[in-house]
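Page 42, continued from yesterday. The earlier attempt failed because a stray header line got pasted into the input along with the sequence. Redoing it now with the clean sequence only.
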Amino acid sequence: MNTTKPSDFTDLTCTNLMIKLKILLKKLAAGGELQFFATREQVDNTCSQFISQGYDVKWEQAADNSYLVTMKK
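This time it went through. Structure tokens are written below.
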């Protein structure tokens, strides 16, 4: 279980978020989990691409335009 505070990526463009996630997920151990906050647009444009790559991706609304995203390897 991830005990660190989720990062806030809501200020990143979708492209920059995708790059950051690829780097972070590459470093993540098998069975590991990554949590972060993203906007609805970021979730729509990036999360489905990771689902198709075999990651378990879930999100829940945390605020007006902020979603807590959890990605598992």
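Notes: The mean pLDDT is 92.
Reminder to self: strip header lines before submitting.
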